[in-house]
């Protein structure tokens, strides 16, 4: 009989607890569900975007065994003959890959020029499908074949004309058909390589050569041999290297989003702890009675763990469903970048990931189980005779008041902030944040006892203060449960708010430094086929009212095949006063003391972490296929490119490469000339319609909008932390208030009025929340220092200055404070509404 009765007891106790206090259970389940949903949604979105982008790369590479690329984007097509003639090579396919500028659009269209006959043997996906009556359109000089996604995006059909821009001149191409096979959402155009070189003014240039090796050839050995033969200026890579570069570029962003999503899960775990701890305190005599009638300690332990794990299972299941729905909606409405911009040109769809779902399900369940371990252990260890007596409920969680484990967590966390990243991820920074949170919450019983004891000694001896402060001082463990809920949510919100505000203010200040001119001119908003010729540059500089015109050339430079390309920026820079243009950090070299006639470059902060460059270091860069020696003259802050950037003088770049085309211009105007007047003059130039003009304040506003979009998920997580905190306050205070019905009945027996009890409860809620907010400011501030000075530099390789968003923090603190007082008051009205005799009749 006994084996059959125990499960019925478990079920009865579980359902009875939920029926008695459904709101607390719902809040705990919702907190777990929110954490799981956010984490699962972010994982699905990033996985879908990365997998789609990776699939697009594979379709472009086809069955190539190796690829030869130039270190600076384009390379001389003469290398194709050297490769194709080798006996180890079965097929060598030349490729010209361009991001074509589209007039009137900020996005570009990827256009790939291929040798149709050779590409068919390596990458059949890159084959155009012409009309039946025009089979030779694959070789036509004006034909382009578009993927279905590109046709839909551009609203074009077969036979229509596609307008692109080369330099500042429009070029019209005929849409000759679609592609044999293209991935859903992949925006792509295919042309004959000769036509692409001619139409886009890239005669004699290639982007890469795809190689298919003869059967039996050792790929690694041939790769090493070819690398030695082609150096310098060329890289021999495998197609999967491109995937690795994309993964490395977006990894830190993806990991940070997932870690931030788990913030809600951590808070949910503490709400489960709060729910179960209060349940154990309230049911202390009930559990003791069950022990008296035969239930063992192990069964009591199992019962409490069952209740907590059930909350976790329900929350995790709801979170998985909600996370999938969120991911599908976000991908359909906003694409897969989440504001990061790492996966352009693809349109991913959400795919349910069983392994990831299992992982997040286990995380949610584990969080709930961990949250109820301490209450379960205490309930199992309680002595039935003592627990059957009313009073001394605060002793249930006495072990929580031991400060040494909490202090150890804080000390270990502080030490971890000094450790380096692991695989370029701030693993120890994340662990430090978790340990600080655990340590801070663990210290709350001791802090509550100390704070309220001091307040009790200093407060005036009135009935209200005596009842309020004395109770808080003498029952610190119960107070710490409410404080922990406030602390966990508020401190995390404070930390994220400070980090985002610091970053945003730093970006705003940085934009002011890097935008010193009065007007900026661009040849194109996106793509790499735009540009300004020397004659066009002279025309811009000669406009009346332009006091100074500085031109800029930007290209890509690959320094390491395993890493994304570095931005190479050439512009006029005064060696003796580079800070006029560059937001420098640290020491610099000048012509007088250390350059000694060597060509200088200025590197971004990311170059220090990723490549080990430093001020004074001599480095070799391959430009136009030839190696050249430079010295690092300074380090500058760059919030636009986390993969690294190098700036050099435009005159040095042009003399070394012979490239006279520029991308942008910065114009300084005469004092009596307005930007509108110069803008009108620029538009009147023969090529004026191709120019994009912007003033510094417009660029700053656009950049900050992009920043806010990139941190939209972080803003959402801040809001979630506040909402969970409010629910936690409501659930915790209402549960504690209702559990004290006997105490209120006794107070009313000795003459305390209902309104005085209500005032006492409102004061308790206010004081507890004030202490939680105060400690939350301190703990959140410490966590924000880790985010600002450890996590961000190790993740994205840039530094920032600290900024405190006082208005936001004070507003959220005020909302929490008012909510706590109102919640305590509402719960108190119900608790004191019952008869005083009935409230104390069960008191032994």
Number of separate strands: 22
For the report, how would you describe the main beta sheet?
A: 10 strands, mixed
- The pLDDT mean sits at 82
The termini sit apart by 34 Å
Q: List unreliable stretches of 5+ residues.
A: 1-6
Number of domains: 3
Multimeric state of these chains? Answer: single chain
Helix-residue proportion = 55-70%
Class based on secondary structure composition and strand pairing: alpha+beta
Gyration radius, to the nearest Å?
Answer: 33 Å
Q: Globular, elongated, flat, extended or rod-shaped: what is the shape? A: elongated
Q: How many DSSP H or I helices?
A: 28
Strand content: 5-15%
Structural descriptors:
844 residues; alpha+beta; 3 domains; ten-stranded mixed β-sheet; 28 helices; 15% strand; disordered N terminus
Q: What can you see in these coordinates?
A:
- The chain is an alpha+beta fold.
- It folds into three domains: 66-237, no CATH class; 398-514 and 699-844, no CATH class; 519-694, no CATH class.
- Strand 14 (546-557) and strand 15 form a beta hairpin.
Which helices and strands, and how do they pair?
Blueprint: H1 2-20, H2 22-61, E1 66-70, E2 75-76, H3 78-84, E3 89-100, E4 109-114, H4 116-122, E5 128-130, E6 143-146, H5 148-154, E7 161-166, E8 169-179, E9 188-192, H6 193-199, E10 205-206, E11 208-213, H7 219-230, E12 234-237, H8 239-282, H9 284-292, H10 297-334, H11 354-381, H12 384-387, H13 404-416, H14 427-442, H15 444-458, H16 463-474, H17 476-514, E13 519-522, H18 534-541, E14 546-557, E15 566-571, E16 584-585, H19 591-595, E17 600-604, H20 605-611, E18 618-623, E19 626-636, E20 645-649, H21 650-657, E21 664-669, H22 675-683, E22 692-694, H23 696-710, H24 712-739, H25 741-749, H26 754-796, H27 806-831, H28 836-840
Parallel strand pairs: 4-9, 6-8, 15-20, 17-19
Antiparallel strand pairs: 1-11, 1-12, 2-10, 3-4, 3-11, 5-8, 6-9, 7-8, 13-21, 13-22, 14-15, 14-21, 16-19, 17-20, 18-19
Helix pairs in contact: 1-2, 2-8, 2-10, 2-11, 2-24, 8-9, 8-10, 8-11, 8-17, 8-24, 10-11, 13-14, 14-17, 14-26, 15-16, 15-17, 16-26, 17-23, 17-24, 17-26, 17-27, 24-27, 26-27
